[in-house]
């Protein structure tokens, strides 16, 4: 028996090496279930509870699907409920995450973010956060430097690249785009520790520990309310026929 290595893929970069700051790439988001129920039946067991606040999050893995950094991964949490509230009683972290998720849908489906036609609006409606699992979109990737020299820098999602932005079409054509570095500074919470429960670009929205978590959630929007912790997981229904295009193929 012989082994032909001619069709082998290029070797991967060392895992300790971050993707360069400001890199543009097409990436896939995979949700890692955390065992905490979401508000939709299909989101049973999908969320992850914060260890130090009332926040509930999506634990997401991002994988580069094309280009020089193909198969490279990074990880990030998105707050879905809890944490600091705005003046309307809504979770600040959720408002930031919601904006990111809408941008992901627009990027994945090639929707103009200014398109508010009924057809476009319908495509931005999903039946549960589970339907975001597997979404592929164009992104700018940043490097978050460590606040402690004992730790390594890590990659984060800087922003979703939308149709109409100059890098979008080039990345979709498979071209390599000049990076646009973010030059981020280490993000710290009020206690002096790195914020873990919100996107790196929104440290002020990171959930803060609270002794009145129940009262905070009552003031939030209805979509932030979670089933009781003791509720048994429910079977996830099949995606609706008019669900996201990345699910229906």
From TrEMBL:
Ranges annotated as biased composition (Basic and acidic residues): 176-186
Superkingdom, natural source: Bacteria
Region of interest called Disordered, as start-end residue ranges on this chain: 176-249
UniProt feature, compositional bias: Low complexity: 195-228, 237-249
Protein name as it appears in the record: Uncharacterized protein
């Amino acid at each position: 028996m012989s082994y032909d290595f001619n069709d082998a893929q290029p070797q991967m970069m060392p895992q300790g090496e971050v993707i360069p700051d400001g890199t543009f790439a097409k990436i896939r988001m995979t949700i890692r279930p955390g065992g905490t129920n979401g508000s939709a039946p299909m989101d049973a067991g999908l969320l992850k509870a914060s260890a130090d606040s009332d926040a509930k999050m999506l634990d997401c893995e991002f994988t580069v699907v094309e280009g020089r950094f193909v198969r490279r991964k990074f990880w990030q949490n998105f707050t879905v409920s809890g944490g600091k509230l705005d003046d309307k009683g809504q979770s600040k972290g959720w408002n930031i995450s919601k904006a990111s998720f809408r941008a992901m849908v627009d990027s994945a489906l090639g929707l103009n973010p200014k398109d508010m036609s009924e057809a476009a609006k319908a495509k931005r409606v999903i039946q549960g956060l589970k339907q975001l699992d597997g979404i592929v979109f164009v992104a700018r990737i940043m490097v978050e430097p460590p606040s402690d020299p004992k730790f390594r820098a890590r990659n984060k999602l800087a922003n979703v690249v939308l149709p109409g932005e100059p890098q979008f079409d080039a990345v979709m054509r498979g071209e390599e785009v000049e990076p646009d570095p973010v030059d981020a500074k280490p993000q710290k919470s009020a206690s002096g520790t790195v914020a873990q429960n919100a996107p790196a670009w929104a440290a002020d929205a990171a959930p803060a520990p609270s002794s009145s978590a129940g009262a905070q959630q009552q003031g939030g929007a209805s979509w932030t309310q979670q089933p009781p912790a003791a509720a048994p997981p429910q079977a996830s229904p099949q995606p609706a026929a008019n669900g996201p295009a990345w699910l229906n193929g």
